[in-house]
Amino acid sequence: MKDEIHSRASREFETLLLAGATPAGAPDAMRVVFHDMKTLTDDRFVQGQLHVAEAIRQYGRRHLDEVMLATAVADIHDPLTRIGAEYGLTFEDIAARMTGIIDSMPSRWVEMKLRRQRQANPEKTWEGNDLNDVAALAIAVPYCDLVVTERSWSAMLNDAKVPDRFGHRVSRSLHDLTDLLLSA
Question: How many CA atoms lie within 13 A of 115 on its CB side?
Fold first, then answer.
């Protein structure tokens, strides 16, 4: 009985998070709260990326990779310093290993590369839904054989050869999925 309740609750909560829908019997006001929280989170992401773009303008485009690496590490600074302290490492020790740390975390590396590609084109504005795209693609690209996504993200990922690192493919066409399944 407990497992059944947990299973149902997990499915319904996942529905809430992924589809923006409320589970059966939940008050409609809950939908408004989750929508407001998502909007707030999206807005913060966009503002954060605008600050990153400003840093790139300030330091120069030649430092794009360094800025993107720094922001990738900044997102995980607290757990890194906590774990580093357990092993007797200072922040300077961790900073000296930043590239290796990010390179060893496939989803974090992909997330950094996605943001880097997007920041490389200052004409393209960030939108709130980009947070969902970046988060989903950062997980899918390193762990799925084929990822089908919208044209712009597919082009950015393939131009940077991100899928090549994992021996995977990123496409904008579902036809590629059919081809992959038929060749298996």
Answer: 30
The C-alpha torsion from 126 through 129 and 117 to 83, rounded to 10°, is 110
Give the C-alpha separation, 32 to 53, whole Å. 31
> What global pTM score does this model have?
0.77
Q: Which two tokens stand for residue 111?
A: 């997330």
Please check whether residue 108 is in contact with residue 102, taking contact to mean a CB–CB distance below 8 angstroms. yes
pLDDT in tens, 3-24: 666 566 666 655 555 555 555 6
Lowest-confidence segment of 4-8, 148-152, 177-181 by average pLDDT: 4-8
Average pLDDT on 85-110 reads 92
Q: How far apart are CA 113 and CA 35, in angstroms?
A: 28
C-alpha angle 181/139/71, rounded to 5°? 145
> How many residues can be counted in the chain?
184
